[in-house]
Amino acid sequence: MVTKTESTEQNFAEAITPKRYGKANIANAIATLPQTSERVLEDVQLVDNGSLGVRMFRVYGPVPRHQHQYSDTYLHIVSGRGEFAVEDEPAFEAGEGDMIFWVRGTDHRVVRVIEEPLVVYAIDSPTRRPDDVLFYSENN
Length: 140
Hints:
140 residues; two-stranded parallel sheet; 10 strands; Jelly Rolls; mainly beta; 1 helix
């Protein structure tokens, strides 16, 4: 017996929750990100199936040093350019077309936005939980 699989399609705003397959319009997801924000970044969840999460986010300014204890992170820079720092290594620039990544427990930060809009396609494995952001004090 063949059963119909679940599907979802979005013109964008709500996350795709666990489904067997789906479609999300990336351009529409990016369009939902505000032009300015008081926050250092704004994001929208595209996929969340537990084992993998996909988000789009826009960076508006420096993101303090932090880590994620439960998720590995893979970032594809869709537009813009930024300066990033990982662990105690020298900071480096990454821009449109570049991918940067780190495993869970790795300290990282955005030192500065060089070219706007800095828009990123992020894959987190497993899905990054909202409480999985450990920021450090400036003394650490």
